[in-house]
Amino acid sequence: MSQYPHPWLAREGWPFIGASVLASVIVTWWAGWWSLPLWLWTAFVVQFFRDPPRAIPAQANAVLAPADGRVVKVDTAFDPYTQREALLISVFMNVFNVHSNRAPVDGMVERVEYHRGRFINADLDKASAENERNAVVLRRPDGAAVTVVQVAGLIARRILCYVKAGDTVVRGQRYGFIRFGSRVDVYLPRSAKPRVMVGDGVYAARDIIAEL
Fold this sequence. Notes:
By secondary structure, the chain is α+β, with helices and mostly antiparallel strands. The protein has 2 domains: 8-51; 62-211, Glucose Permease (Domain IIA), CATH 2.70.70.10. Helix content is 17%, strand content 38%. The chain is built from 3 helices and 16 strands. It has helices at residues 14-31, 36-48, 127-130; strands spanning 8-9, 50-51, 62-64, 69-79, 84-93, 100-102, 107-115, 133-139, 145-152, 159-161, 168-169, 174-178, 182-188, 193-194, 201-202, 208-211. The protein starts with 7 loop residues before the first strand and ends with a strand. The mean pLDDT is 87.
């Protein structure tokens, strides 16, 4: 299992969790059981920002799930970031999924592209082209390109990415986070073999979504 800097609760959530707990304590002090809705909200915030470490599969040619959620697309598509035909696998995260994003393959970050956009339902196909998004193009040691795109959702308003061009990442490495419902697209070489189908549930870094 890879080293993990902040097990169980993501650092991105600490301010939200702290504020929720403080508000709940204050309202409990003054209003007793009337504070119950705030405690329920606090429980939701804690579960949203959970971020447990995961065991990483050892299979060398495996492409790992970049996010927790449900597979909503497995199809050929044009990768606009590398200008090629590709196998596209998309994972949709709802508000009850872990929202930490993980690198699906080993490689060097060739470039990072951020695009402003809309905030329509990330479950829709057009979200990949119209929503706010951040693309990371990875170049594997064998030369193959893999593009990972964080896509904002209907209520997601913040995409966080912690890598830049020239960085080296390893499979399962935590590289970003999206707050409150979103989607991650993975563009793979056409020769890649999918290991998942639409409707499958996957866990970031733990589950294999394709083989190169």
